Amino acid sequence: MVRMTLAELASQPADVDHAKLDATTEDDIRRHMIEDGYDPDDPSYMEGAVVVRPPQMIRERLGMTQVEFAKLIDAPLATLKNWEQGRTAVPPYVRVLLNIIDREPEAALRALGLSRPLAA
Length: 120
Description:
By secondary structure, the protein is mostly helical. About 50% of the residues lie in helices and about 0% in strands. The protein has a domain at about 55-110: 434 Repressor (Amino-terminal Domain), CATH 1.10.260. The chain starts with 5 loop residues before the first helix and ends in a 9-residue tail after the last helix.
């Protein structure tokens, strides 16, 4: 594993060909899907896909501050800020907890010992 500082990473040239990306058409995307084995006219390839909301969206939907939310999930405030700002990835086991809180907030908050009502 190679370690780089943020400044070193920022100084690296981007490896995205923006001209090629901008020139990509819907027909190109459709062709690529077919080449990859997906039928673009059959949305079943999305079956089982789950909408995963970012931590900040879940927290704001609950009407909680970063401090309150970090305490709720027992995470350091700095870690939550890093997740929300995209500096670090949310670990899979935390993602599971966040998905439960997002999908079943009342039950999750009761289970986590929060007694105050949710913000509307």
